[in-house]
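User: Small ask, check this?
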Amino acid sequence: MCATAGSVSAQDTQAPAGDANTLDLPGLTEFAPTGNVPEITAPSDELRNVDLDARLVEGAAPLEHGLIWRVYHPVPDRDGKLPILATSEGGSALISMEPGEYFVHVSFGLAGVTRKLVVPPRGPVDTQDFILNAGGLVLNAVSGNDVRIPPAKLKFSIYSEERDANGQRQLIIADVRPSKIIRLNDGIYHVVSEYGEVNAVIRSDISVAAGKLTEATIQHRAAQITLKLVADEGGEAIADTAWSITNSAGDLISESVGAFPSLVLAEGDYTAIARHKEKLYRRDFKVAAGFNYDVEVLLQ
């Protein structure tokens, strides 16, 4: 596990078989939950019953809810896609299908596995046991050493570890909120944590272990500041003020309008420039991780 421009700590605990996250597969329709052991039926005069179950890891108990099952025809259609024949949501499933070959996909949140299914014309049909090799990931973040970041100002995006030929990572899920359980296959994932809307961004590689819940806390080197144009120190903020923030290199970082706008900035040196009644006022200031404070610019 490694981190860039910040740090991340992770703790593994046994993963509960809790609610799954919604899986968005293009071209497949949504469907409503069914009973504990749903049945999927394709019309035919010659059907065989097949039991399906799924486990987080080898030897674990079958998952009782949160699973999405999809059965596909093995021959692509004119668009090059495998036709979907049946779907079910819940735990273990019972399918009734004609003898033949199919592909079965089961997902648990964003974790999933696909297997070929052969339904024989006669003889016993074994229970199909799917091993997901999946775990869970819960993300949180602090500013500085231990200042908890308000959830409304924090979001995460999860990417694959591998890069494509263009050097880009595949986005797995965006806008993940703190403390939400994300179900994933075991492996290493690239997590982008955004604190606020400006430049407080941390990238970390986090490992998810099968059968466990990984709780990761990312450390931001940033703080929230509130801008005020005042006549005297500690005075009332003056309305109708336009603000610009530049970094130590003079690059424009943020623009806003208001009496006391608030924003989150990464640790570093900045300049606040206030424009009021066609006049400019400025002040240099420093942002220290986890230290939130007001930046007052004087009308002098």
